[in-house]
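Dock zinc ion; give full complex structure.
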Amino acid sequence: VSCDAQVLWDAEAFTSYDFGPTHPLRPLRLELTMALAADLGVLGRATVVAPTAADDATLELVHDPLYVGAVRRAPDDWLGRLALRHGLGTGDNPIFPGMHAASALVTGASVAAARAVWEGPAEHAVNVAGGLHHAMRDRASGFCVYDDPAVAIAWLLAAGARRVAYVDVDVHHGDGVQAAFYDDPRVLTVSLHESGRTLFPGTGFAAETGRGAGVGTSVNVALPAGTGDEGWLRAFGAVVPPVLRAFAPEVLVTQHGCDTHALDPLAHLQCSIDGQRVALRWLHRLAHSIAGGRWVAVGGGGYDPVRVVPRAWTHLLAEVTGGTADGATPNAWRELVAARTSVLAPTSLSDGAHPSYDPWPGGGEPAVDALDASIAATRAAVFPHLGLDPHAAGDPLPAERPAS
Ligand SMILES: [Zn+2]
Ligand SMILES: [Zn+2]
């Protein structure tokens, strides 16, 4: 079954978000992703739309006008004092020519995805260049200049949406999006990530549940380093479906950082492409069952540009466009990899893992390991605010095919 989907993409433009040759966020990962998806015919099922840049008024739905001005002037700010005050010009967020234009374009693509889903014609829309979830109101952080998912959500609210849910499966805490809506009861943010005890940005603990009218609308699952598919999916099933059902959003926005993979060089989870695919299928199914099919998906982190990101996001593109991608990677793509890098291309679209897990059993038994202790802490902290029983059982694995 195919869903009406839009893919926001412009090769020249998107690869200009480039912090330089020694930075871990490499435009190559997007180039190799779109090449793999194109070679497999995944893009043939969707409408591919070239985005335009977000204007200042749109960026300022989330960002401080002084910050937007600082980003625009940063490449010419030779002393760098203004820039540094806004997190620009650091090792993580070096200044590059055209930084404002490139960042505003990524944000414009996520806003266009939100608009396509909110106003039609699409049910689902995806921007793999987006997902820059660490950027804050007045500063760059963690390779992120403008917070495109937060701006897209703010755009949806301005367009009349009353409830928007955001689910972030990047290995890092989605701190920028959480901060943008921490006291806003209209936005549920859910982040499933490696614990801030061992990983940037050092936040995202169960006790962060929101502020004021927003208490109960920030949900954080801090996973122990070393968690693999089974634990990751157990946590997902124990928390994500129940809180989404309770919140009943009109739109689901998801962030698909694939740096949970075992090969990712910056983090310490042990997930496989196949485990990530289960979460994708699950989110697709949830978009249909709880958000009327309105689904906006963005990319995110992922720092193995050959062995992980292209396959992870080809599966994302396939899922959003209602298809699947299986079997071997195409010869033409492996040749492109050989021409562009010295890394051996993966030969299969799968890691050969067959993820399964024990669903969260419910009941009030004390947790026996660190993973279950984290899950239990999240449920205890936030479930009562959403009218949910922290001791209820979690969801089982979703069916093979999404309900499109
Ligand atoms: Zn990340
Ligand atoms: Zn669908």
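Observed: The first helix runs from residue 11 to 14.
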